[in-house]
Amino acid sequence: GDKGEQPRRSTFLERDPIGRLLAKLNDDARQDYEYDDGDRLLSIQRKQTDTGRKLGVTAEKLEFTYDLLGRLVKETTPQGTLAYDYDPLSNLTTLTLPTGQHLNHLYYGSGHLHQLNLDGQLISDMER
User: Fold this and answer.
1) Which residue, among 76, 78, 113, has the nearest Cα to 96 in the 3D structure?
2) 99 φ, ψ to 5°?
3) Gene3D superfamilies, from UniProt (predicted)?
4) Per-residue H/E/C for 2-40
5) DSSP code for 57
6) Distance, CA of 118 to CA of 128 (rounded, Å)
7) Predicted local distance difference test score (pLDDT) of residue 6
């Protein structure tokens, strides 16, 4: 307002009996969270309110997929899919971006991260 007041924004959280976040609500959207029997997050779905619609907030759903070891292997969004690959020690080895590019993680034999590269182009090199 004209009296130097800060705009107010309230967020309400809904949790289940074991404390997992089920929903987050504010003036422009509601986000619902869904879990599997293993307590892993399966999806987050955003639904805009009338206020949100006027502000340009869009409905959106994010989905998460896990392997038998419980590791995240895929995130699906309206913008595309992220895919995760792991080595036998469960170190992330490749993150495939929605563009098809590969963010590669290279490790020392000890398991410490050695290098990050994007399709072979060096991003960071760590020395021990």
Assistant:
1) 76
2) -80, -10
3) RHS repeat-associated core
4) CCCCCCCCCCEEEECCCCCEEEEECCCEEEEEEECCCCC
5) -
6) 21
7) 76
Q: What's the token pair of residue 65?
A: 């997929």
∠ CA(18), CA(21), CA(25), 5° rounding?
Answer: 140
55 by DSSP, 3-state: which?
helix
The domain in which residue 59 lies consists of 9-66
Same domain for 43 and 89, yes or no, is: no
Residue 60, in any domain of the structure: yes
For residue range 61-110, list pLDDT tens digits in order.
999 999 999 999 999 999 999 999 999 999 999 999 999 999 999 999 88
**φ, ψ for residue 7 (rounded to 5)?**
-65, 145
CA distance 115 to 92: 12
Q: In terms of domains, do 49 and 86 share one?
A: no
| Total domains in the fold of the chain | 2
Of 45, 66, 87, which residue constitutes the final position of a domain? Answer: 66
Same domain, 57 and 24: yes
